[in-house]
Amino acid sequence: MVSKFIRETEIKFVADEDILSKISSIKFEPYEEIDEYFTTKQMLDSFTFLRIRKKNGKTILQLKDVLAGADQTKDCYDSDELHLELNDEQYEKIRKMLLATFPHNFIVKKIRNKGHRNDCEICLDKVEDLGMFLEIEGEKEKILEICEELGLDLDKRDKGRGYAIMMADKKGLL
């Protein structure tokens, strides 16, 4: 089982026509991500997420803690994440335990188009049932440089809700 612990810093925008035109020069590579969330109301309220992500032929158990509860006064938000890569047998056993343990679960499917600029990942996500979003991940200073370079208005950023919160809200779990 391969594991890693990371700190992630990101900013997210709803990708409207204006944003799509501003990122048109970025070369993107598409792939599908499917996240199955296992949660409680308390976890959602504290911005702590347990999910199994399937992407590029890999299955990864992830625990994500959005620091300071996605503080809406910050330009970007940080999260600590633990990633454990699972084989098929581990996936089946862990998923069965999670389904028996957590009262709420839901799936977030997206087509992620990933590009790079200024040592940051720039992702254009088409999220099923939620819409299109632009995410920029990397060091905060570099993220803000990209936002300035592209002319993105920080006041129009998605204020830390994240796809899990949006989907939980859509499903009436909040």
Question: How would you summarize the topology of this molecule?
Answer:
Elements: E1 3-14, H1 17-22, E2 29-39, H2 41-45, E3 48-55, E4 58-66, E5 77-86, H3 88-101, E6 104-117, E7 120-127, E8 131-137, H4 140-150, E9 157-158, H5 162-170
Antiparallel strand pairs: 1-5, 1-8, 1-9, 2-3, 2-6, 3-4, 4-5, 6-7, 7-8
Descriptive tags:
174 residues, alpha+beta, Hypothetical Protein Pfu-838710-001, eight-stranded antiparallel β-barrel, globular
Quick summary of this structure?
The chain is α+β, with helices and mostly antiparallel strands. The chain is built from five helices and nine strands. Strand 6 (104-117) and strand 7 form a beta hairpin.
What does this structure look like?
By secondary structure, this protein is of the alpha+beta class. It has a single domain (3-170), classed as Hypothetical Protein Pfu-838710-001 (Beta Barrel). The chain has 5 helices and 9 strands; from the N terminus they run βαβαβββαβββαβα. It has helices spanning 17-22, 41-45, 88-101, 140-150, 162-170; strands at residues 3-14, 29-39, 48-55, 58-66, 77-86, 104-117, 120-127, 131-137, 157-158. An 8-stranded antiparallel barrel has the order 1-5-4-3-2-6-7-8. A hairpin with a 2-residue loop joins β6 and β7 (120-127). The longest helix is centred in the middle third of the chain and has 14 residues, at 88-101. The radius of gyration is 16 Å and the shape is globular. It starts with a strand and ends with a helix.
